[in-house]
Specification:
3 helices, 2 strands, two-stranded antiparallel ribbon, mainly alpha
Length: 84
């Protein structure tokens, strides 16, 4: 019997079922707020590549989030990426 794993729609972490992993969802399985996830993802990006500046890590994180179903059309993501 093979296990089918899917990816979290918010961060691409492998998950057994549902839309979001435990890092991206609250106790009810709902997606955590954009700002919470963005900060966590920026922190992860900085840990993975300590040569990046904060601004570069934010830009890299936003670019990545734009590829994900949970965020690409999310109002908070759109507001951040369409600033003048």
């Amino acid at each position: 019997m093979s296990e089918t794993k899917t990816q979290c729609e918010s961060c691409t972490m492998p998950i057994e079922s549902g839309q979001y992993c435990s890092y991206c969802s609250d106790a009810d399985g709902q997606l955590k707020p954009f700002d919470d996830r963005f900060e966590s993802m920026v922190s992860w990006t900085l840990r993975e590549d300590s040569s990046l500046s904060r601004d570069a890590a934010e830009a890299k994180t936003l670019a990545f989030m734009g590829t994900l179903p949970a965020w690409r059309n999310h109002p908070d993501y759109v507001a951040r990426t369409t600033k003048s």
